[in-house]
């Protein structure tokens, strides 16, 4: 969904600057993993970056569902130490 997805104004739940930054990173590619998101998002690295990204992406997904966006944020299932992949997908009618 490169460059086609745009967030609404967030009528029910407002999007934070962090949400918007993560969304812009997501919309640049078809799929991106949590490790790469952490490298591209955080200026100062810590050992908990991937956990923080995963939590932030869950919050963004919940806001997108609550606001009734035309697309949804999807992720791969947990696979132990492997990074999760995230992507945007059109919502099914």
Features:
single chain; 93 residues; alpha+beta; Aspartate Aminotransferase, domain 1; 3-stranded antiparallel beta sheet; 40% helix
Could you explain how this protein is built, in words?
The chain has 93 residues and is of the alpha+beta class. It has a single domain (17-90), classed as Aspartate Aminotransferase, domain 1. It contains 3 helices and 3 strands. The mean pLDDT is 87.
Report the portion of residues in β strands: 5-15%
CATH topology descriptor: Aspartate Aminotransferase, domain 1
Report helical residue fraction: 25-40%
Looking across the biggest beta sheet, what order are the strands in?
A: 1-3-2
What's the number of domains? 1
Number of strands: 3
Shape: globular
Order of SSEs? HEHHEE
Termini distance? 17 Å
CATH architecture: Alpha-Beta Complex
Number of helices: 3
Q: Which segments are poorly predicted (pLDDT under 50) over 5 or more consecutive residues?
A: none
Gyration radius (Cα, Å) is 13 Å
Please give the CATH class. Alpha Beta
Largest sheet: 3 strands, antiparallel
Helix-and-strand structural type: alpha+beta
Averaged pLDDT: 87
Brief account:
This protein is 40% helix and 14% strand.
Q: Which helices and strands occur, and which strands form pairs?
A:
Blueprint: H1 17-27, E1 32-33, H2 34-41, H3 49-66, E2 71-75, E3 85-90
